Amino acid sequence: MKHLVVVGACYLDTILTVPHYPGEDEKLRATSISHRRGGNGPNTLEVLAQLLHHKIPDNTRHPTTIPQPASPRPSLHLISTLPSKQSQAVSNIASSLDPTVDIDHSIFRESHTEPASSYIVRSSTSGSRTIVNYNDLPEMTEHDFQSAAEQLLSDAETWWFHFEGRIPEVTLRCIRYVRERCPEATVSVEVEKPQREGLEDLARAADVVFYSRSWAAARGYTSAAECVKEQAVRTRRDTRQMPRHAGTPSMLSICTWGEHGAALYAPAWQEPVEAPALEIADGKVVDTIGAGDTFIAGMLHGFLSVQERFADFVRILVFANELAGLKVMREGFDGLAEDVYRRATDLERVILGME
């Protein structure tokens, strides 16, 4: 059986929608308030659980070009720093995720009851999001991760570890531990925050790297294709060929570029593969929070569901783009799997036009 372990922060978000962003010392009435669980990794797992458990109706033919839910389904695990296991916050976090997502191997700070929290002010006028974070929980250490991972890796299975990329020096030591303890595991990382030093070191250590547009633009790249091709050179390392069951080449670089789509590249390819973003009409963008996490869920779903063929990676990229586009047209993540598979025929046309 395949196992996906996602390592990253988990937040409880409070989202205030306001007519416009307030000035300093200004009083402003919000038009709505909502509460939900956030964090890159948990968001990705929420969407991925939908995709893996989506049931295709017996009377529906879904094109073979679209990644199908894997069988048997991979097991999903979250390793995150959380407050006391008996706290209301942990109960809320657990209930926000599919019951099949294991959080028991997370790191519980028993002397704390408050979770990491985000307060998000969303402007209806500009669509901007201003985020204030609060986190009093001690961050995960290398020892914390090793203790959690050791319990999981006691089974001889197929493993994929996905790291958010927080505190790069600690994350790098965690990746090295995975390499030593489980050499055949696949490792993916997110390179997201432009100001965070050490992320390229993580990229060199990983098999699959997800670059954000903001990180790429801060380094002078003007497109997703330019980013993935150049970064493949900058982070090149001597790697063994990944086992066939891993479903990835020895190194894969992926970058999203908003309305301009996304690109992916492996060193063995002559040029990057590019896929268009879903076209969204003016005024249809509702909520961009978690769009990048949704894209990653779509990519991981594809990697866990298909074999290692170039055509598969084209299909996965188109699928993930579509999924992220559908996400920004709704609040939260509910119903994404149903909607993306409902659009399977349209996706097939896009994919066949690229091959």
Automatic annotation (TrEMBL):
Keywords: Kinase, Transferase. GO terms for molecular function: kinase activity. SUPFAM superfamilies: Ribokinase-like. Pfam families: PfkB. Gene3D superfamilies: 3.40.1190.20. Residues 1-332 form the Carbohydrate kinase PfkB domain. It comes from the Eukaryota. Signal peptide: none annotated. PANTHER family: KETOHEXOKINASE (PTHR42774:SF3), PHOSPHOTRANSFERASE SYSTEM TRANSPORT PROTEIN (PTHR42774). This is Carbohydrate kinase PfkB domain-containing protein. It comes from Cyphellophora europaea (strain CBS 101466) (Phialophora europaea).
